[in-house]
Amino acid sequence: MAVNRNFLAIGLALIVAISLMGLNPAQKAEVGARLQLALGAVGQWIFSPITRFASANIRNRFVMAQNVELALENMRFREAAWENRRLREALGFKREMGGSQIIPAEVISRDPDQLYDALVINAGRQQGVLEGMPVVVPDGLVGHVLQTEDHSAVVALIMSTRISAIVQEKRVQGIVSWGRGSLFRLNFVDVTSDIEKGDRVVSSGLGGRFPKGLVIGDVIEVRQQKRDPLFKEVFVETNVNFGKLEEVFVISSAN
To answer: Could you confirm whether domain 101-255 is CATH 2.40.10.340?
Structure first.
């Protein structure tokens, strides 16, 4: 069958060749031009999908590259905006501290298994950081310096300590201890006190570890204790997000 096809093709080619030999030069030129146009149209018909696909592929790659570049630029702008916001808050906080000398530092590591115990900052003895100094952020009290190196320090968070505190509006004193998550308890609050939800709790300055007036949190609930009717059960919530701390401030002196 294949041999017959070959003979048929050869025969057709001979017939075409003999027919062309009988034409005058003008007719040959016209036939050649028509064949050239036909071959060009066939070639365009065959290769145009490939060309269109290649062009579309190039355009798609270009658009994807542009989208990735815009996404990265948006990420950079967003991070810069957050950083500017943190710096503005820190500047305002520094002004609020008045005569207190504060040392800025960045959080460089934390123990994921002891999230609420300690973290490490990139400021140490060479920057004036000493053991026992309080550590804060604009949102409130973070903890105190537990251990120092030349250029780093370990900060014990307030979850691991008890803090002598006072309710700012009502001047009621107590001891703050950690409960769970962002919740603390203000212990030893007299049953006759008029503490309410929304009252602010700050350090009282007693005990010497923390200076007076550092924000610990806000009262979110007050209940009457059943086991000990002489005291109220007061729950305090901190505004500090300990899981997302990036910059902190060490207070090296206070008025």
So the answer is: yes
In one-letter notation, the amino acid at residue 5 is R
Whole-angstrom Cα distance, residue 121 to residue 136? 12
pTM for this model (two decimals): 0.61
Query: What are φ and ψ of residue 140, in 5° steps?
Result: 150, -170
- Integer CA distances (angstroms), 130 to 101, 116, 124, 137, 214, in order: 13, 21, 7, 18, 19
Helix (H, G, I), strand (E, B) or coil at 126: helix
Q: Where are the alpha helices (DSSP H) in 97-189?
A: none
Burial of 12 per CB tally in 10 Å (0-12, 13-18, 19+): exposed
CA pair distance 204, 183, nearest whole angstrom? 19
Are 182 and 116 a contacting pair, CB within 8 Å? no
- Confirm if 187 and 175 have CB atoms less than 8 A apart: yes
How far apart are the C-alpha atoms of 255 and 253, rounded to whole Å?
7
Query: In this structure, are residues 119 and 245 in contact, taking their beta carbons and an 8 Å threshold?
Result: yes
Q: Quick one: DSSP state of residue 196?
A: -
- What distance in Å separates the CA atoms of residue 150 and residue 133, rounded to the nearest whole number? 15
The tens digit of pLDDT for each residue in 58-74 reads 666 666 556 555 655 65
Total length of the chain: 255
Domain segments of the chain as ranges:
1-96, 101-255
Instruction: Say what the pLDDT of residue 121 is.
Output: 96
Nearest to 224 by CA among 235, 216, 232, 212: 232
The pLDDT tens digits for 134-159 are 999 888 999 999 999 999 999 999 99
Beta carbons of 76 and 93 less than 8 angstroms apart:
no
